Protein: Alanine--glyoxylate aminotransferase
Organism: Paramagnetospirillum kuznetsovii
Amino acid sequence: MTPKPFQPPQRILMGPGPSDVHHRVLSAMARPTIGHLDPQFIVMMDQVKSMLQEAFFTANALTLPVSGPGSAGMEACFVNLIEPGDKVVVCVNGVFGGRMKENVERCGATAIVVEDEWGTPVDPGKVEAALKANPGVKALAFVHAETSTGVESDARTLCELAREHGALSIVDAVTSLGGIPVLVDNWGADATYSGSQKCLSCTPGLSPVTFSDRAVETLKARKTKVQSWFLDFSLLTAYWGGGAKRAYHHTAPINALYGLHESLVMLHEEGIEHSWTRHSMMHQALRAGLEAMGLGLLVAEGARLPQLNAVLVPDGVDEALVRTTLLNQHGLEIGAGLGTLAGKVWRIGLMGQSATPHHVTTCLAALEAALLAQGVKLPQGAAAAAANRVLLV
């Protein structure tokens, strides 16, 4: 068989990520490839770093995009800051808290797990009790925006608790950056990582990370080598650290960084506060439409992420068939539940370029049609009408 160029189908991406990528970002990625030590590429690197600092609301000197997805950013935080024998309090209220625990253990450290029910925020009271019961904890790790459930935890309070007990804070902001406030300096967060494919609406494959001065000092004071050569920030900063002279570390994903640069330019043009407002408004419209169909959300009001909505599957509905119908008949992708929520929820993303009125009304109309096809009784057209009442305010 003669190989042919791959032509992907046109999709509307409204799952847990990736989100739709704007044509400006795709066009930027098609620009001519230059060397990763080219003087003009270095100019662009400095701009990426500056715009990431703006997005993270930080002045941290060590701010860079790791060459790899959000999972690489997560691993970078742990391997640089955690050594064998350390103790780390890990908050688990979904899939990604569990991955943090796995990283701690692979670093040869002890994970002290604070568990909360999936769909509920991390309980600061439980965290404080764990920190008090385990003096000398090296770090507190938690997920700000848990992608598996659609719940937001109180990052400011958790970072403050870590500081009060002499621990570093490691914050997963993969789904939050650009969609809701991520205020690194204001929170006193020490290590924060995100991903390019969620609310930044770039392609997958890059993970913005920022370290506080306290985290950098911890890295410098290590007794052992960082467990990963590729993710060792003491080496990476020689390439990303600033100035015209850069030390070769690895061949950076040049065209992917063009895309991240463009997506950050677009975020700057919109204004990050306006981006937060847009995500909130689209969530309110989606919620109104879901409620008009008689559908509920997993997470209690006040802790819901606007950009990731865990929708409860009605009794008697084949949830997998609904997702297949949306994909095959409408070109629309939504996500399934993970772990204990498998088969119980759909995860509908409103992230970045996928957080628009058109996305909301298209999703509601497609979901309504799929449910009607399974015999669910609901008022036809009510969902879109309810959403539009919110959007037209």
Remarks:
- The first helix runs from residue 23 to 29.
